[in-house]
Amino acid sequence: MNALQKVAAFLFIIGLEKGKKIMALMDSDELKNVLAEFGKLQRLSQKMQEGIWHEFEQQGYEEGMNPVETLFVCRQFFNGSKMSDMDKRKTILSRFH
Q1: What is the distance, to the nearest Å, from the Cα of residue 67 to the centroid of all Cα atoms in its chain?
Q2: Cα 53 to Cα 2, 47, 48, 63, 89, distances in angstroms
Q3: What residues contact residue 35 under an 8 Å CB cut-off, 6+ apart?
Q4: Which DSSP string corresponds to 9-77?
Q5: What is the pTM (predicted TM-score) of this model?
Q6: How far is Cα 71 from Cα 92, in angstroms, rounded to an integer?
Q7: Fewer CB atoms inside 10 Å of the end CB: C or N, the chain?
Q8: What tens-digit pLDDT sequence spans the chain (97 residues)?
Q9: How far apart are CA 83 and CA 96, in angstroms?
Q10: What is the C-alpha to C-alpha distance for residues 25 and 20, in angstroms, rounded to an integer?
Q11: C-alpha closest to that of 88 among 7, 14, 33
Q12: Residues ≥6 apart with Cβ < 8 Å to 83
């Protein structure tokens, strides 16, 4: 899974209430990108969910975090930047090289 897919899966795993609060803090491009990945999510096995959860814990996620802190952890998958479709960005940038 790419970083954007992992963020979408993580927001699904933590549940609707927490996920909505985090998505409310995203800018419109981030939200658009994450919602597009929600539509592509297939069934997540328990093992896959545990793996994603573990990756987020490695980035610093703790269950008691508030939405702002959780969004910060999500952005760590994008080197602290806002979430974007990195594959699309690479394709666009490659046209200029």
Answers
A1: 13
A2: 15, 10, 9, 10, 26
A3: 23
A4: HHHHHH-HHHHHHHHTTS-HHHHHHHHHHHHH--PPPHHHHHHHHHHHHHTT--TT--HHHHHHHHHHT
A5: 0.81
A6: 26
A7: C
A8: 899 999 999 999 999 899 999 999 999 999 999 999 988 888 889 999 999 999 999 999 999 999 999 999 999 988 777 777 655 444 334 444 4
A9: 22
A10: 9
A11: 33
A12: 3, 4, 7, 26, 30, 33, 34, 74, 75, 77
Please provide the distance, in angstroms rounded to a whole number, between the alpha carbons at the two ends of the chain: 27
pLDDT at 77: 86
Count CB-CB contacts under 10 A for residue 76.
16
CB atoms within 10 A of CB 71: 20
Longest dimension (CA), the chain: 44
* Token code pair at residue 2: 């790419």
Structure tokens belonging to residue 11: 């927001």
CA distance 57 to 55: 5
